Amino acid sequence: MNARYANEDVGKNLDVTQMYLSEIGFSPLLSAEEEVYYARKSLKGDESSRKRMIESNLRLVVKISRRYLNRGLSLLDLIEEGNLGLIRAVEKFDPERGFRFSTYATWWIRQTIERAIMNQTRTIRLPIHVVKELNVYLRAARELMQKLDHEPSAEDIAELLDRPVADVQKMLSLNERISSIDSPVGGMDTDKSLVEIIADEHHAGPEDERQFSDVVHNIDHWLNDLNEKQREVIARRFGLRGYEPSTLEDVGAEIGLTRERVRQIQVEALRKLKLMMEKQGLSLDDVMNLNE
Which has the least CB within 10 A, 16, 19, 111, 168? Predict the structure, then answer.
């Protein structure tokens, strides 16, 4: 392609992106009370309430989408995928469960974007929860390779993670069998490729919902493992347990501490949470919307 035309295409994409960002900037965020109000009406089929919830959270999609730049999709493509996740979140959100919509929506937005990126690479996709579980074992294997004088066995990994050997063997065998998404599946009475026999994962099923429920349950469990001050700072900072997300300054004013002291407590609490989450194959970004 001629360089001049390529530059023109880039310019047009930037213009379209800027127009989109300008348009969504006029959609006000909802308060916790408004979220509950519109979510209840949306669940009853009120289309205007559904639209209000979507439009009020489009900026959240953009914020999350920016984290995935330079991974094969343009910002507009990432936003488009993220918007699908947002729509799914609005359809599935139950306001009676006690957590903020942004927490729930972040989960679905990340799921759809990550799936789109994985599909873009044209390699076989495992479900997100399986990939994260596999990463736990692979990280353990890398850690052991630094300590042992031989390649870690399934037994070595199982001992380090305190998991059944059979589970480790199963996950490692998945890693070995990952192949091209267009390759015919061997050992089966079919000429179909993996992409043809795997369910359409843009239509998230009960497993995704169960996984999110598990994470919500684990958040409470993880917070209870922090001391009282750490628990309060994290809950107030990231909008957990009914709080609105707040800045370091606001949290400090609310609990009578300086911004720097709140930051120090947050750093230590996130360090502890990171260790807890990694044991579950998750990262902080999988669960929390980190602002700073």
Answer: 19
